[in-house]
Amino acid sequence: NDKWCLDPRVVLLANTKTQYSIQIQDVDVYDEGPYTCSVQTDNHPKTSRVHLIVQVSPKITEISSDISINEGGNVSLTCIATGRPDPTITWRHISPKAVGFISEDEYLEITGITREQSGEYECSASNDVAAPVVQRVKVTVNYPPYISDAKSTGVPVGQKGILLCEASAVPSADFQWYKDDKRLAEGQKGLKVENKAFFSRLTFFNVSEQDYGNYTCVASNQLGNTNASMILYG
Questions:
Q1: Where in the numbering of this chain does the Ig-like domain appear (predicted)?
Q2: Which of 109, 92, 111, 110 is nearest to 101 (CA)?
Q3: End position of a domain, from candidates 103, 125, 143
């Protein structure tokens, strides 16, 4: 009936003639180790040893911040986690084409990153104690504009005509329109320029003979620029 421990978290439970037990409340990792039960008999003490293994749910303690990088650069992501037993750490790219893990380590290295590798990367820390914990890092890949669609258009005199210029870029492209070498100004009579993140639309409300000709769409951001020519014809 002796409790050789001053810790108030350790409680002697009701004993029977064949069973003796203690209860440890609010278990901590420091409670791990060997515990000895000693029974005094007529001849000599008999002891029995029990080893307590303390398990701890995984916890991510450090993870890389969101990052923005130019295409072709190198990326290094870190995910540090604790737990008992030591958690297994895996990285996964959250994208429509994601297939399995891309790294089974605390560190994820991407050399010569491409625009397709942008998006969210998920770190998962798991052991058998509790459900895995996950956190995500957003990787933004910057690249110069690429014009994907710019078609010439035929419109009769007096009708409404539209020239469309589609471009992908990160950061989003700024658009400018030129007729021959002359830049078209926003609000020019009979014209409307509508710029969105991924396209620019040039609208002619009432096409005249003077509107026919060659038009150039220029898409630019801080990484570069590109252009495409198209014709408005009768």
A1: 58-140, 144-233
A2: 92
A3: 143
